[in-house]
Amino acid sequence: MKLDLNYTLQFTQEILAIPSPAGYTEKAMNRIAKELEKLGFKYSYSKKGCLIVKIEGEDSTYTRLLSAHVDTLGAVVKKVKSNGRLELINIGGYAWGSVEGENVIIHTLDDKEYEGTLLPIKASVHVYGDIPREMPRIAENMEVRLDEEVYSESDTRALGICQGDFVSYYTKTKITESGYIKSRYLDDKLCVAQVLAYLKYLKDNNKKPNNNLYVYFSNFEEVGHGVSEIPKDVDEFVALDIGLVADDAHGDEKKVSIAARDNKTVYDLKIRKKLQEAADKNGIHYTVGVYNRYGSDATASILQGADLRYACIGPNVDATHHYERTHVDGIVETIKLLIAYF
Questions:
Q1: 241 is in an annotated binding site
Q2: Residue 187 annotated as part of some ligand binding site
Q3: A biological process (GO) annotation for this entry (predicted)?
């Protein structure tokens, strides 16, 4: 298999640099659309803004759907405080401690951007002693210090900042000489790049998928409704989303994950066996994931009533929904499984 790893890593870094918390994904979607045009694939949009590609396969009697989501964690301004700082409410599930001290961008309705930093309301140990160490990290105890001369609610509102504005966190993307890539939001922008790498492989090698294939780039996965409309001819849905690396998750950053269960449901046994057989046949290194707190676009669609077979695969990632990390070997194994299976 001739894989263009440099392409995958380059697009990963590029799409990571475009803020796209769930609900604020148009710019990222436009960049993906531009890439699809460059690769020669036609696309359409759903009413919710999901990008959809339909590709004719070698066998037209069976139809698959492959998805990856471009939306990420983030926040919304909940309140402009009397001191000019901002209280936030989260988008998606993460611990406030995971973003403490992180720089942020406030995206206003008139397309202005302002920088700031998320801090505890009592941040300095010099001033508050043990309170900063012991204070619970909950939304009410966190605030954004804006990098503007604002000292009151009216000062901040004069900038055009108000409740409802989207907030994105800096990603701090870095690829190490040892082959690790670390960044916020590898979930799921790395998978977006891997899907595009798979499509590039088809183009470069003048190949078709094994079966008719829909490719979805969804935009509301982190809030539970990424793929809410599925064509009636779809027989099988495979979500490309991150695997988990932790003591009880069985993940390995240098391998691809094939999920067996998440906190919503078990995955389809028949499809999981086929995925594992494809990996075994092609010498692809993988782990089988059993997850306590996890969901994917595939299982969300099942809970919404979709009648199809479903699975989830993806690169194993350490410290998910925090400052995430994986290895280029696992990225390659994931793309190899896409090529072998689809």
A1: yes
A2: yes
A3: proteolysis
Q: Is the pLDDT of residue 250 over 90?
A: no
Third-level CATH fold of 5-72+185-341: Aminopeptidase (3.40.630)
CA-only gyration radius of the chain, Å: 21
Query: Does 280 show up as a binding residue in the annotation?
Result: no
The answer to whether 247 is annotated as binding is no
Helix, strand and coil content of the chain, in percent to the nearest 5, comes to: 30, 30, 40
- Which positions are annotated as active-site residues? 221
Beta bridge partners of 240: 313
Q: Using alpha carbons only, give the angle 190, 191, 194 rounded to the nearest 5 degrees.
A: 95
Angstrom distance (rounded) from CA 327 to CA 190: 11
In this structure, the chain runs to a length of 342
Q: Could you give the 3-state DSSP secondary structure of residue 235?
A: coil
* Domains of the chain by residue range: 5-72+185-341, 74-169
> Cα dist. 73→21, 206, 215, 235, 322 in Å?
5, 36, 22, 30, 10
Please tell me the CATH superfamily of domain 74-169, with its number: Peptidase M42, domain 2 (2.40.30.40)
**Parallel/antiparallel/unpaired status of strands 211-218 and 59-69:** parallel
CA distance 276 to 309: 16
Quick: pLDDT tens for 59-93.
999 999 999 999 999 999 999 999 999 999 999 99
Q: Return the sign of the alpha-carbon dihedral for residues 26, 165, 21, 15.
A: positive
- Give every CB contact of residue 189 below 8 A, 6+ residues apart in sequence: 12, 15, 16, 20, 70, 72
Q: 């045009």: which residue's tokens?
A: 37
Tokens of 95: 């611990």
Residues 287/243, Cβ–Cβ less than 8 Å: yes
Residue type, 157: R
Asked whether the beta carbons of 184 and 167 are under 8 A apart, the reply is no
Give me the helices (H) in 25-174, please.
26-39, 125-128, 131-134, 153-158
**Bridge partners, 79 (sequence order):** 87
5-72+185-341 and 74-169: identical CATH topology:
no
